[in-house]
Design goal:
Elements: H1 11-30, E1 51-52, E2 62-66, E3 100-103, H2 107-112, E4 116-117
Antiparallel strand pairs: 1-4, 2-3
């Protein structure tokens, strides 16, 4: 085991990497491939939009169909929170920005018997 601590990069290498990244950023902006930061969604207030009522005996009354797409590339470039592809994007450049939930199980029965609160 090597007890001495050394830097993985020299200062020159670090500077070259930073310069290269800046050049890549300029190129991506020029080609309109860099998604602009959306400040309106940086600090959302999270709530869960549905809740089962007390007379429902199921463990839960909802399921998830899609997650946020964490891959900024498009289209068909999808990465959900778990590295999977349970999300979507569009050819126009939209990357899914939310979590899609649905009522489950017995959706119609749940609605007819007031089994949930929104």
């Amino acid at each position: 085991m090597n007890q001495t601590s050394t830097s993985c990069l020299t200062n020159l290498q670090r500077k070259e990497i930073v310069q290269e990244l800046k050049q890549i950023e300029i190129l991506l902006k020029r080609e309109n491939k860099l998604i602009k930061e959306n400040k309106s969604i940086l600090n959302p207030l999270f709530i869960w939009p549905v809740k089962k009522v007390s007379h429902i005996t199921y463990n839960e009354i909802w399921a998830i169909s899609n997650y946020v797409d964490h891959n900024v590339a498009f289209s068909d470039e999808i990465t959900d929170f778990n590295g999977g592809a349970k999300s979507y994007d569009t050819y126009s450049g939209y990357n899914h920005q939310g979590v899609d939930i649905f009522i489950w199980p017995y959706s119609l029965n749940m609605l007819e018997n007031n089994g949930l609160e929104v």
